[in-house]
Amino acid sequence: MKNYRITVNGNVYDVEVEELAAGAAPVAAAPKAAPKAAPKPAASGAEGAVKVNAPMPGKILSVKVSVGQAVKKGEVIMILEAMKMENEIVAPEDGTVASVNVNEGASVEAGSVLATLN
Question: What would the DSSP string read from start to end of 50-75?
């Protein structure tokens, strides 16, 4: 058996490959890992006037606020993992969360609107 790590559409899989002897019939086996379904975007209310954008591409590890919650400038609203580092995404000003546009586990691109404030 040989072990390989492959990446398909951003999902990483560890697989074992068995080399068959000439003329041997392959045996069907169930896959060891199934890809997770992509999280659906969070239900958001009306868009707010102040947009909070992703500073870099990454994955949302946690969302710390909910729609309608009051936040202060500099308060952490979510954690973005990028290049194996956790980055705090903070409120750019005082306000109320008008929408949360991502769920935990979502992959985002640089510049994506993560949330909006009023």
Answer: EEEE-SSSEEEEEE---TT-EE-TT-
- The label of the residue with tokens 């640089």 reads 110
The model's pTM is 0.60
Within 10 angstroms of residue 109's Cβ, the number of other Cβ atoms is 10
Least reliable range by pLDDT among 33-37, 79-83, 110-114: 33-37
Average of pLDDT values for 16-34? 65
DSSP SS3 for 47: coil
Structural contact between residues 80 and 89, judged by C-beta atoms closer than 8 angstroms = yes
Q: Which residues pair with 117 in a beta bridge?
A: 50, 97
Of residues 72, 68, 65, 80, the one with CA closest to residue 110: 80
